[in-house]
């Protein structure tokens, strides 16, 4: 038996159609969802990711604005740009593409974004809301992963989830979201002794370390669900995940491919958050009219 492939690309297509319909309805109420992406510098991977965000926005009907600044931009200037969009009513989502140049403090930038427009779900206030299971902007990659697991009709409650990687944008939050779905969650990272002894216990294995071919057949339990978050560009130009796909395919029950897996769902959940923000703002408008 070979594993079934959970196609993020197909699921993303479906979700984008639903979002396009919602955008149509919002437009009838006079609200055009708007996303502003801010890029500092010319990191080649960032430019490629932003193109994906722009394409998805256009498909869905979200107004997309790119603000592109030189590498030399000062932190204060960037904070001022964010401040401007915090007050701009046509903007419902602000995303500052990471990584930022070393002279700009990521924390200060993230905290400057209004939590009401934080469509990345990176603001500490939204992270706190997520921790306590409140309805808020969820970080896009983790939220996309949960959608992918559910789309394959995989039960999460009671399962042992092992997360490899503990970044603030993927590893940590995906564990929290799956805990909120009643999984038993274990985190592994670079200081975990005997990694494969832990990963072999996973019913659902989520890998977000950013190293090509890091997880092999030896790490995977028979019939596990394997979610590969890695996007590693090889010297040949080929994109590959953190998991040796051919190994996982022989052992797992389900596996997400790279490309065409978690990446397209990340972008779709971003659009989902922009539409959610626009809907919230339409509701606030309605309430203020009624007052
Ligand atoms: N503020 C911020 N928010 C982010 O969400 C954010 C970020 N910064 N910095 C970089 C990471 C990375 N990321 C990806 C999104 C889509 C794909 C994606 O669609 N990948 C395609 C392939 C794309 C290609 O060929 O280059 C796929 O896997 O099929 C990958 C990676 C979002 N990020």
TrEMBL record:
<comment type="pathway">
    <text>One-carbon metabolism; tetrahydrofolate interconversion.</text>
</comment>
<comment type="subunit">
    <text>Homodimer.</text>
</comment>
<keyword id="KW-0028">Amino-acid biosynthesis</keyword>
<keyword id="KW-0368">Histidine biosynthesis</keyword>
<dbReference type="InterPro" id="IPR036291">
    <property type="entry name" value="NAD(P)-bd_dom_sf"/>
</dbReference>
<dbReference type="InterPro" id="IPR020867">
    <property type="entry name" value="THF_DH/CycHdrlase_CS"/>
</dbReference>
<dbReference type="GO" id="GO:0004488">
    <property type="term" value="F:methylenetetrahydrofolate dehydrogenase (NADP+) activity"/>
</dbReference>
<keyword id="KW-0554">One-carbon metabolism</keyword>
<dbReference type="GO" id="GO:0005829">
    <property type="term" value="C:cytosol"/>
</dbReference>
<feature type="domain" description="Tetrahydrofolate dehydrogenase/cyclohydrolase NAD(P)-binding">
    <location>
        <begin position="139"/>
        <end position="280"/>
    </location>
</feature>
<dbReference type="GO" id="GO:0000105">
    <property type="term" value="P:L-histidine biosynthetic process"/>
</dbReference>
<keyword id="KW-0486">Methionine biosynthesis</keyword>
<dbReference type="GO" id="GO:0035999">
    <property type="term" value="P:tetrahydrofolate interconversion"/>
</dbReference>
<keyword id="KW-0658">Purine biosynthesis</keyword>
<keyword id="KW-0521">NADP</keyword>
<dbReference type="InterPro" id="IPR046346">
    <property type="entry name" value="Aminoacid_DH-like_N_sf"/>
</dbReference>
<dbReference type="GO" id="GO:0009086">
    <property type="term" value="P:methionine biosynthetic process"/>
</dbReference>
<feature type="binding site">
    <location>
        <begin position="165"/>
        <end position="167"/>
    </location>
    <ligand>
        <name>NADP(+)</name>
    </ligand>
</feature>
<comment type="similarity">
    <text>Belongs to the tetrahydrofolate dehydrogenase/cyclohydrolase family.</text>
</comment>
<feature type="binding site">
    <location>
        <position position="231"/>
    </location>
    <ligand>
        <name>NADP(+)</name>
    </ligand>
</feature>
<dbReference type="Pfam" id="PF00763">
    <property type="entry name" value="THF_DHG_CYH"/>
</dbReference>
<keyword id="KW-0560">Oxidoreductase</keyword>
<dbReference type="Pfam" id="PF02882">
    <property type="entry name" value="THF_DHG_CYH_C"/>
</dbReference>
<keyword id="KW-0378">Hydrolase</keyword>
<dbReference type="InterPro" id="IPR020631">
    <property type="entry name" value="THF_DH/CycHdrlase_NAD-bd_dom"/>
</dbReference>
<feature type="domain" description="Tetrahydrofolate dehydrogenase/cyclohydrolase catalytic">
    <location>
        <begin position="6"/>
        <end position="120"/>
    </location>
</feature>
<dbReference type="GO" id="GO:0004477">
    <property type="term" value="F:methenyltetrahydrofolate cyclohydrolase activity"/>
</dbReference>
<dbReference type="GO" id="GO:0006164">
    <property type="term" value="P:purine nucleotide biosynthetic process"/>
</dbReference>
<dbReference type="InterPro" id="IPR000672">
    <property type="entry name" value="THF_DH/CycHdrlase"/>
</dbReference>
<dbReference type="InterPro" id="IPR020630">
    <property type="entry name" value="THF_DH/CycHdrlase_cat_dom"/>
</dbReference>
<protein>
    <recommendedName>
        <fullName>Bifunctional protein FolD</fullName>
        <ecNumber>1.5.1.5</ecNumber>
        <ecNumber>3.5.4.9</ecNumber>
    </recommendedName>
</protein>
<comment type="function">
    <text>Catalyzes the oxidation of 5,10-methylenetetrahydrofolate to 5,10-methenyltetrahydrofolate and then the hydrolysis of 5,10-methenyltetrahydrofolate to 10-formyltetrahydrofolate.</text>
</comment>
<keyword id="KW-0511">Multifunctional enzyme</keyword>
């Amino acid at each position: 038996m070979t594993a079934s492939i959970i196609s993020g690309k197909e699921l993303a297509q479906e979700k984008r159609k639903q979002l396009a319909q919602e955008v149509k309805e919002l437009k009838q109420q006079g609200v055009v969802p708007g996303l502003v992406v801010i890029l500092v510098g010319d990191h080649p991977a960032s430019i490629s990711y932003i193109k994906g965000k722009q394409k998805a926005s256009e498909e869905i009907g979200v107004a997309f604005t790119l603000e592109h600044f030189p590498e030399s931009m000062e932190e204060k200037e960037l904070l001022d740009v964010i401040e401007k969009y915090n007050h701009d009513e046509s903007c419902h989502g602000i995303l500052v593409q990471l990584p930022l140049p070393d002279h700009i403090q990521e924390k200060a930038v993230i905290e400057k974004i209004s939590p009401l427009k934080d469509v990345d779900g990176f603001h500490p206030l939204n992270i706190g809301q997520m921790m306590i299971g409140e309805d808020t902007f969820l970080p896009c990659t983790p939220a996309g992963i949960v959608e992918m697991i559910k789309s394959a009709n995989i039960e999460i409650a009671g399962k042992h989830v092992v997360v490899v990687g503990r970044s603030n944008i993927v590893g940590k939050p995906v564990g929290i979201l799956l805990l909120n779905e009643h999984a038993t969650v274990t985190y592994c990272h670079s200081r975990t002794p005997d990694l494969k002894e832990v990963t072999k216990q996973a019913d659902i294995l989520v890998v977000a370390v950013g190293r090509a071919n890091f997880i092999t057949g030896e790490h995977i339990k028979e019939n596990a669900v394997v979610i590969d978050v890695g996007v590693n560009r090889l010297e040949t130009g080929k994109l590959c995940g953190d998991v040796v796909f051919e190994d996982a395919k022989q052992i797992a029950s389900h596996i997400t491919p790279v490309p065409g897996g978690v990446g397209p769902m990340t972008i779709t959940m971003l659009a989902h958050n922009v539409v959610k923000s626009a809907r919230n703002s339409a509701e606030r408008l309605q309430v203020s009219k009624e007052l």
